[in-house]
Amino acid sequence: MTNDWFAAFLIGLLGAGHCMGMCGGIASLMNIGEMSSKRLWLNPILYNVGRIISYTLIGGIVGSTISTIAEYSGVNAPLNWLRLISSIFMIILALYIGQWWAGLLYIEKTGQHIWKYISPLGKKLLPIKHPFYAIPFGFIWGWLPCGLVYSMLTWSAASGGAPQGALIMFSFGLGTLPLMLSIGLSTTKLNQWIKSILFRRIGATLLLFYALFQLYQGVVRLM
């Protein structure tokens, strides 16, 4: 499981450019017209705290729900199948991060119907009247339809429990943190480094090998 947490962090780090494109514009709205230098730092930090809390919560819920179903049914086969599915999603992620195939974008469309009912709640919190309002704002926007998040949730589902599922999503959220914070803090060099094609493809290749290994293990468990 430790390897899964590290891989989840790596996916967050490598895929943060996608997160930046998805919700970076919304995150940048928090500091429009803001004159206080303290709040220019605090708003993005607390926004990302709320976002990571939402990831951790849903990861724990998914991990707990699936493991409870498997426990009471007395059948572990569903978990083995979920591990296999999560490996396939990992391969899709690696291909997306390496910019070899953008099939992940089609997965995002599945959540757009629900998102149209959730997004108005976040918009009501704008403009951010106090830095601590950025926490619920980030929590709501953590539910934005995202293929990366959906893929990581398949890992949480196959993790075997609430703590494991929560930690996978928490690690993913931490991985996205450096680039997402840079939206508000204007760290241009960090953006260029993380978004560089060489960095992405080295990481994507490592992830692809790890995914193929996990896929092999999943097939062996089902045989």
From TrEMBL:
> Sorted alphabetically, which InterPro entries does this protein's record hold?
UreH-like_TM_dom
Question: Where in the sequence is the signal peptide annotated?
Answer: none
Urease accessory protein UreH-like transmembrane domain span: 7-210
Looking up Pfam families in the UniProt record yields: DsbD_2
- Tell me which UniProt keywords the record has, alphabetically: Membrane, Transmembrane, Transmembrane helix
Membrane-crossing ranges are 6-32, 52-72, 84-107, 132-153, 165-186, 198-216
Protein name per UniProt: Sulfite exporter TauE/SafE family protein
Taxonomic lineage is: Bacteria, Pseudomonadati, Pseudomonadota, Gammaproteobacteria, Vibrionales
